[in-house]
Amino acid sequence: MTKPAIVVDEVCFQWSPTAPVLQSCSLEVPKGEFWMLLGTNGSGKSTLLRVLAGLLTPQSGQVDVMPPVGFVFQNPDHQLVMPTVGADVAFGLVEEKLSIPQIRQRVDEALTAVNLSHLQRRPIYALSGGQKQRIAIAGAIARHCEVLLLDEPTALLDPDSQLDLVSQVQKLIKHRGMTALWVTHRLDELEYCDGAFLLEQGQVIDRGDPQRLRRRLMQMEGRQEE
Ligand SMILES: Nc1ncnc2c1ncn2[C@@H]1O[C@H](COP(=O)(O)OP(=O)(O)OP(=O)(O)O)[C@@H](O)[C@H]1O
């Protein structure tokens, strides 16, 4: 069997001894699949994603994520740092010490993958929220990331751009053989994933069929059908 792209084994993380956030948390995402992470407010979803990205170190347990790893934040303005689209996508390649033609080729390939090659010279400030998120994803594609971690990337988008983004990520995962874990509160996005995890008080309490987990989370939150 192929090794999973993401493995979390009995991970515990706390900000202080009286405030455990992740408690013996375990999950696996198979390579080449698109999984979502659900849970009530404060259940530890963002913390888990940050542990997976190496931004936080757990007190115990093991994490194994296939490198390179790309991270997409809720607010793209916290992530896009260069003045133009092309420069921003190229910025992530600095450490790889590529030649100029190699950088151009990586940037072209990545922008084509997210259908934004026509915006290469556009200033970042002139983009819509959905376009900015696609540029953040293009940055990860340019770095040839194996794994994409996305923390509520559609939270600031309108419903049309929201579903455009999730369907585009689904296609990218399938076409490029990448693996993604996507945190969401917007349950209509579950249509697009291969499977889901349900987090409660820092533990994965259920996993598998997205629609079954959707119903379970709605019961937990007392939500009506959307
Ligand atoms: N920097 C921090 N310092 C202290 N406590 C924190 C910090 N960041 C998060 N927490 C706490 O950790 C717990 C889990 O937060 P986290 O953001 O991971 O949950 P979440 O499931 O992503 O929540 P939401 O759905 O509201 O985004 C919460 O109780 C939160 O208050």
Can you put this structure into words, describing what you see?
- Residues 6-226 form the ABC transporter domain.
- The structure is a single chain.
- The protein has 226 residues and is α/β, with parallel strands linked by helices.
- Helices cover 32% and strands 27% of the residues.
- The protein is built from six helices and nine strands.
- The chain has a six-stranded mixed β-sheet, with helices on both faces.
- Strand 6, helix 5 and strand 7 (179-183) form a beta-alpha-beta unit.
- The radius of gyration is 18 Å and the shape is globular.
- The termini are far apart.
- Adenosine-5'-triphosphate is lined by residues 15, 21, 39, 41-47.
Chain-wise SSE layout:
Layout (H helix, E strand, L loop, with lengths): L5 E11 L2 E11 L4 E6 L5 H8 L7 E6 L3 E4 L12 H7 L8 H14 L15 H14 L4 E5 L7 H18 L2 E5 L11 E6 L2 E6 L1 H12 L5
Parallel strand pairs: 3-7, 3-8, 5-6, 6-7
Antiparallel strand pairs: 1-2, 1-4, 8-9
Helix pairs in contact: 2-4, 3-4, 4-5
The structure holds adenosine-5'-triphosphate.
InterPro entries: AAA+_ATPase, ABC_transporter-like_ATP-bd, ABC_transporter-like_CS, ABC_transpr_CbiO/EcfA_su, Molybdenum_import_ModC, P-loop_NTPase
Keywords: ATP-binding, Nucleotide-binding, Transport
Pfam family, one: ABC_tran
